[in-house]
């Protein structure tokens, strides 16, 4: 389909296709629309609520169940936008009510998500059935304490943070990040288990350097996880803008990450993150970092049923023992931490010239990213700490408690040097001012004595 038209667009609340809107006269707009593939025009008409346009296209024989690059149909689009009359027209012309997009979401699920109640009633009347959330309980007293009423989440001005996963929403007067689990999760026991495991971990976590879990929607579909929203973005975005950081900033950020990970590792039982990388570390309003995204985290006591793959996480920061499917513990996070710390100083990702899988193969071959930054950027003991953290033998890697102690010492030494550069200048400035004052007083006294003698 993409070959038929070079036009790419966003459809209101969709990530589907719709021409970008520019101020132009109606004749120009009609001419441009005529150049677009008719099937794509059907999606656009559904997004605009254009009943006449939809009828015209359907009369031409356009497939009412045409799917865009995200596997959405015109019915998905109309359901999201809340156009009950468009939904009715599409259904009358054979639109499939239970069709699913690439995230496993049906038109009814989309209508429920955006609280388009007229569309919900219409779809249910035509046979659409909401899937029962797999964590649904029969008695009110069994509802988890963290349960959030889905009606309290307002997606009116929602914006995607991560395509298909996280969105910004409004909840009780504040902005929150919402992780939506598509309806494909409901029929996949493995994904439901992963969702339960993630909730079990999030309930345990309360720390300034870990993103705060606020609640979840488990009694209705789609299921959602709600966490605090940090508008300053992640460390990956920050590093792309800043590249290499000043040593003091890199060490301060490293301390934030280490404190968050130390908290997780000292949990009873310990929590292994397993997916520690810059995009999973967020910045708060004060400029501090918080560890986030526990989708592939695990309790140390839980035995792995299958190996972690690069489909689950980013290979570039994964410890070699994970890739080799060996037994591992909290030290896998220490390995990832070393790569991130070095990246903050070097200004580029580890083995940036290599593909992710090739970078991981380099780790298993006992290769490590080179130190290219000037020696002065690695404060005393910092390079040695990084090398210890990515040691081939996990047992020889330090714990985060030990890492914090060493980073604090390094950070204090950086601050001490900076203070020594300033203090002598202030002293000399004060001394100079005092000397000038004394000289002025002396000259004044001499002048006074000379006048008196005359």
From TrEMBL:
Instruction: Answer yes or no on keyword Coiled coil.
Output: no
* SUPFAM superfamilies linked: Ankyrin repeat (SSF48403), Protein kinase-like (PK-like) (SSF56112)
Q: Give the UniProt keywords, A-Z.
A: ANK repeat, ATP-binding, Kinase, Nucleotide-binding, Transferase
**Region Disordered, annotated ranges:** 1-37
Which one GO biological process term can you cite for this protein? Answer: signal transduction
InterPro entries xrefs: Ankyrin_rpt, Ankyrin_rpt-contain_sf, Kinase-like_dom_sf, Prot_kinase_dom, Ser-Thr/Tyr_kinase_cat_dom, Ser/Thr_Kinases-Pseudokinases
- Tell me where in this chain the Protein kinase domain is found: 120-411
The answer to keyword Kinase applying to this record is yes
According to the UniProt entry, its GO molecular function terms are: ATP binding; protein serine/threonine kinase activity
Pfam families to which the protein is assigned, alphabetical: Ank_2, PK_Tyr_Ser-Thr
Extent of the ANK repeats = 37-69, 70-102
Please note every region of biased composition (Acidic residues). 27-37
Segments spanning the bilayer are: none
Write out the similarity annotation.
Belongs to the protein kinase superfamily. TKL Ser/Thr protein kinase family.
Name of this chain's protein:
Protein kinase domain-containing protein
Q: Which organism is it from?
A: Manihot esculenta (Cassava)
